[in-house]
User: What shape does this take?
Amino acid sequence: MEIIVYTTNLTNRVKYAFSLVIKNVLGHKPVFVTSVEELHSSQFPKINYSENIFENALNIVPHSLLFENGIQKQNIQVEKINNIFFFFRTSGNNAFPHDIFAAAFYLATRYEEYLPHLKDKMGRFCITNSLAFKENFLDEPVINQWAEKLLFFLNENQQIKIHDNRIFSFLPTIDIDNPWAYLHKGRFRSIAGAVRDLLRGKTKLVALRKKVLAGKEKDPYDTFSVLKEIHEKFSLKPVYFFLVGKYNKYGKNPSAKKKPYRKLIKSIAENNITGIHPSFPSNIYFKELGNEITVLKKTTKKKITKSRQHFLMLTFPETYCNLIAHGIDEDYTMAFPEKYGFRAGICSPYPWYDLLKEKKQTLTIVPTCVMDTTLNRYMKLSPQQAKAEIEELIDKVKKVKGTFVSLWHNESLSEWEHWKGWKEVYEELLEKIS
Assistant: This one.
């Protein structure tokens, strides 16, 4: 359905912010008008985005953000009203005292990540810089919650009712960083690994390595048959992201030129959607991304259009510009490694807006809600604690009819070392959703 949006200043930011909430989240069509006559003559639901007040429209007083150019520090005061977080208060006399469209723009564009900020040792935006983290709403899909509130008030106060045909959806994704713990590493790496374990007194691991290399025991990270079985049980088709970059400090994957890895990639790509897992160096040497995509494309015999950055390495706007330049149209990196939730405050796929060029781009951002290593390594949760946290997160996404995207790795189903008990966590996640 069309939703009329009246504004006296139709900027690219206004178009993007209203399309984000009305189209990408609610599934309806914003129609922009700049004359009062057009606003009043329409029979469709109306939003008045101006300083004026009209009786036949939902009035939202604008914050200046959507009329500005460039990037500058914003004065933000967060409020919690009826268990929903808001900011950018512009009025106190109507249904929407806050400008949810400016706030949605701020979060979804990752405006704060263009501002000067602290970086971690890998050069990533620190979670402690995040407004959502500092104000304790990182685990809330606030943009979707604001959209729900908007829909309610439009239906409450206007004659034409807006039908809501949205449904909750789930997309499991698997990152393949290390397909094997011991196999296919090469002689030098195998010897070096065994020596390292010996020096650390890990004799059981030395013995296991010998058994695996001798073919007497299965490699613990080889859980691909388990992944296939679990997803088939719930009739799910995950997206697999493969790390195929050159061996480096942050990427210990085997060479995709080696037959075993090529064979594995081909077998998975036959029946699943595959994407590139760009290496850490590809964020510094941008041409590396093109080389990695070419390797994966030749191996799978498929066009590669989806990506998720290794280590969730994301810098604005460079990462996304590089992806677009190499034909990627969907990216799944939008998450923080340290804490589950909604880095951009949203649980619906949406287009990227480049703040430096002040325009919407062709890349679609698919936010990731939860990652296995976040729960295990960063938050140090037990399997039981992780199950409870995941269940609560799923319920929040279901409530707003969003898209729940999970990120798991093959090794987390290994039931080995610190992953003991985590296979059940993933199985219960799928069962809860299905």
Observations:
- The mean pLDDT is 96.
- Residues 25 and 172 are 20 Å apart (CA to CA).
- DSSP finds 14 helices and 15 strands in the chain.
